[in-house]
Specification:
Elements: E1 22-23, E2 26-27, H1 33-49, H2 53-67, E3 73-75, H3 77-83, E4 87-92, H4 102-115, E5 120-124, H5 129-141, E6 144-150, H6 151-156, H7 158-166, E7 170-174, H8 181-194, E8 199-201, H9 212-220, H10 222-235, E9 241-245, H11 250-256, E10 266-274, H12 285-288, E11 290-294, E12 297-301, H13 326-333, E13 337-343, H14 344-358, H15 364-380, E14 385-390, H16 398-404, H17 414-430
Helix pairs in contact: 2-4, 4-5, 4-9, 5-7, 9-11, 10-11, 14-15
This protein binds pyridoxal-5'-phosphate (PLP).
Pyridoxal-5'-phosphate binds at residues 100, 102, 129, 205, 245-251, 318-319, 363, 365-366, 391-392.
Length: 431
Amino acid sequence: MDNRNLINDGIDAKDLPDRNGYFGEYGGSFIPPELQKVMDEVSEAYERISRDPSFLEELKDLEQHYTGRPSPIYHAKHLTAAVGGADIYLKREDLNHTGAHKINHCLGEVLLAKRMGKKKVIAETGAGQHGVALATAAALMGLECDIYMGEIDVMKEAPNVSRMKILGAKVISVKSGTRTLKDAVDEAFKAYLADPVNQIYCIGSVVGPHPFPMMVRDFQSVVGLEARDQMQEMTGRLPDSIVACVGGGSNAMGIFSAFLDDKTVSLYGVEPAGEGLDTPNHAATIGKGKVGILHGFKSYVIQDGNGEPMPVYSIASGLDYPGVGPQHSYLHDIGRVKYTSATDREAVEAFYALSRMEGIIPALESSHAVAYAVKLAEKLGKGKNILVNLSGRGDKDIDFVLRNYPLVEYEPDEKEENKYKEFLSHIQKRQ
Ligand SMILES: *Cc1c(COP(=O)(O)O)cnc(C)c1O
């Protein structure tokens, strides 16, 4: 299969993955035969639809009039001045409808579902960000939407659960196992297998079996393609470095994909170092993982001696995943992208810095990229340009940050406090 299509036209290395879904030795499809049949159907449909000009036209129209694309690039002058080194630019994915980059691939996936004649989209969600973006796209296109979410996460992420319900999605609280993301994935796959004709599984990042790592990357590539033109228009040249946070890796693949062939552009993926890489509490998959198989694909995985994925941790729930997209593992091995990390503490400092200096409250996920960009700006010095993919806005994180890292006075009311204690006791039981 030739991967070139209308959606990824313009991105570099679009020959990858190969026809079996491999990026070098990573990716592929490690799933039961009955699921493989379903995935083959998705592959065929994507191949057909992604070459159909009317699909591209419909997607572009939604991106422009619904999401608000192109997202602007902002020169963070105050942050740049405070650091005193390279100029820092932000690709403002936080300004998209629903507040993050996830809407880019959700619109593509739900449009595909509709064209395949599906009635319902299903997915798992951890913190609820993917669930909300998918529920939004499903509401827009008139499809049913079932979101599987661990019982613990349902409790922890109440506002996102409310959002999904208001948007008309059904939130299924998963009570098995650790009652978190991994169990939600298992339940969602079970439900998918029970009715693959009327439903389609919409994965939330560049992970999972082929064709999802390719498809989600293609839908996110609009970020890099826009940024390439915008930076040239603003500065007269390409940026010297690009920085993005990496959970599963979709926002990073989105911005990197248009610059892979530009050898003058250094690319940095920032993984969550949590409480430190020398503690068990991080989610730095490429930094600390080993090659293995997780959720139907081969990649770096944080795993125990038996190849079982281990619990991981980050202050940013969107980065809290023991695997990473297979193209990232490949780009790491060939040395095209440098993978580094930022701790919780560094992310919080960057969160406040951007809020106070630029009036932009970033998502804690994106704050990891900002934290590394600040270090890099010092190192590179004046005259160089760094472009950061600001993957989302921090509205969802404000209560958590104020409570745990108060820089300003904060007095929660009693009712809030009790809810918080209840949640903490659940977390403690889990450990
Ligand atoms: C979900 C999320 C991420 C992490 O997902 P990737 O697939 O690694 O991009 C990063 N930033 C924000 C704002 C998110 O919501």
